[in-house]
Amino acid sequence: VMRSLESPATVKVFEYRDDARIGPVIVMEWVDGSTLEAAARGHPMEPRRAVEVLLPVMRSLEEAHRKDIIHRDVKPGNILLAPDGGGRLIDFGIARGAVELTHTMQGMGTYDYSAPEQREGAVVDERADVYGMGRTLEFLVRGTLKLDGPSSLPAELDGIIRRATHALPERRFSSMREMREVLTEGNDRSFGGAPI
Description:
Helix 2 (47-66) runs antiparallel to helix 6 (176-188) and helix 4 runs antiparallel to helix 5 (155-164). Helices cover 37% and strands 13% of the residues. The strands form three sheets. The protein has a three-stranded antiparallel beta sheet with strand order 3-5-6. Strand 5 (79-81) and strand 6 (87-89) form a beta hairpin. It contains seven helices and seven strands.
């Protein structure tokens, strides 16, 4: 799957083979960086910085979606923070075509970042990746996933996260492109003038 993707924000796969001794072997591009999970856990990113890191990853997912590929496991642990400061997407290991149905936990992704319909084993489309991206953004700007109580985020950014992570797919952004465009506009305005 990853070999068909050309976005510079997708980590390149050079070879995939089954080794009789050790099983599947994937030879990928080396990226000298840590995961976003390691970079942001307990250390929230400024909203502008978080969006700048995620924008290239969102473009990578847009390319995948145009090819009817759904990542299904978008999360901070599957995004590397490259030396140039941009995010790089890895692990299309459970990616499926947009119309495929998965009935096993192997295809379910990571629970905290998986859309409700994905957890239930239903057919998913790109809005499942929108959900994962919304949860990823939430993690980056909070340093953790949502806590109970009022949000301390700028209202516009909080609204974007809430829309992306809505339980009902039809209430989310309809595409990764739509989410990216709304985030870009908000970032250009510094999310309502809030200090970031």
